[in-house]
Amino acid sequence: MDIRALGYLRLETTKLEEWRTYTLDVLGMVEASGSTEDTLYLRIDDRSYRIAVQAGTSDRLLAAGWEVANAAALATAARELEAAGFAVKSADAAELAERRVQDLIHVTDPCGNPLEIYWGQAQDHSALGTPYGNRFVAGDLGLGHVVLPVPDVEAALDFYENLLGFQLRDSMKLPPQAVPTATEERDFHLMHFLSPNRRHHSLGLYPAPLPPGIVHFMVELETLDDVGRGLDRMNAAGIPIASSLGRHTNDRMVSFYAQAPGGFQVEYGWDGLIVDPATWVAKEITEDSIWGHHWNG
Ligand SMILES: [Fe+2]
Fold it and tell me: pLDDT for 210-261, tens place per residue?
């Protein structure tokens, strides 16, 4: 299977007005054409949208959208998923129109997280015009990364690595064990970081007995000043900072984490590592950050 990138996220929220303020006024995203009173579409690059936030009765991930190159690649993906025993559902015309893609399939990962695999998303060729002059790093690298809860981490890793074809970049024991301890008791779970492209990770698999959903998603900015100004806007807006500024060990991202409306977090970062998949060697990291990233509770 030849997945190329994390293309979009679809979220349901009970707090659409808060999401509007949070994404447009604080994160510096741009409202995309086609937004309605019930659904906010957000641009960060030349795709018609990267995040869709839909008003509803719960706060949850509706789907992580993964992009393939063309119709043949989508047909291959559907065939390989079905051969592996996963139920694949084709989209109807209304879904394709709403998502602004040529074709897509629905599938659920082994832990119940909803995925959409698609090709041919529409572009918006108008100037992005972000509100603070901030610029996002997206394009062919995808929108950023998403971390999903996976109660059965081994089944999830098998699905994303061996079936979807993502490359394992590194893993970390939870809790992190800087000093190696005897591992025979296996009193830890491994968190895994993977990607289908050169972005160090597009997906994190968080081993926790949580319902399907989202732990956090990350968007990357072009400059450290973009991130710093975002942090100032978070503080000015009174939004709780979940983790202070820091630099991660694995993707070298300088970032902070803030609470998002409805319960999960957004990571706002800069300077993420671009890797060469041909030479990459999977590793275990033993700390999540080189400095900073002090968590509030
Ligand atoms: Fe992250």
Answer: 888 899 999 999 999 999 999 999 999 999 999 999 999 999 999 999 999 9
Annotate 212-266 with three-state secondary structure.
CCCCEEEEEECCHHHHHHHHHHHHHHCCCEEEEEEEECCCCCEEEEEECCCCCEE
Q: How many CB atoms lie within 10 A of CB 260?
A: 25
What is the mean pLDDT of the segment spanning 99-126?
A: 98
- CA of 161 from ligand 1 middle (Å) equals 19
Q: Determine the distance separating the centroid of ligand 1 and the alpha carbon of 138, expressed in angstroms.
A: 15
CA 292–ligand 1 middle distance (angstroms): 14
Q: How far away, in angstroms, is 213 Cα from ligand 1 center?
A: 15
Ligand 1 center to 68 CA (angstroms) = 23
Report the separation in Å between the CA atom of 267 and the middle of ligand 1, taken as the mean of its atom positions.
Answer: 6
Q: Assign 104 a pLDDT band (cuts: 50, 70, 90).
A: very high
| CA of residue 90 to ligand 1 center, whole Å | 30
pLDDT at site 108: 98
Quote the pLDDT of residue 188: 80
> Are the CB atoms for 1 and 117 separated by under 8 Å?
no
Give the Cα separation of 3 and 69 in Å (integer).
8
* Residue 249 contacts residue 288 (beta carbons within 8 Å): yes
Q: Is a pLDDT exceeding 70 seen at residue 178? A: no
Closest CA to 165 of 202, 213, 214: 202
Domains and CATH numbers, the chain: 3-119 (3.10.180.10), 139-292 (3.10.180.10)
The residues whose Cβ lies within 5 A of ligand 1, an ion, are 218, 267
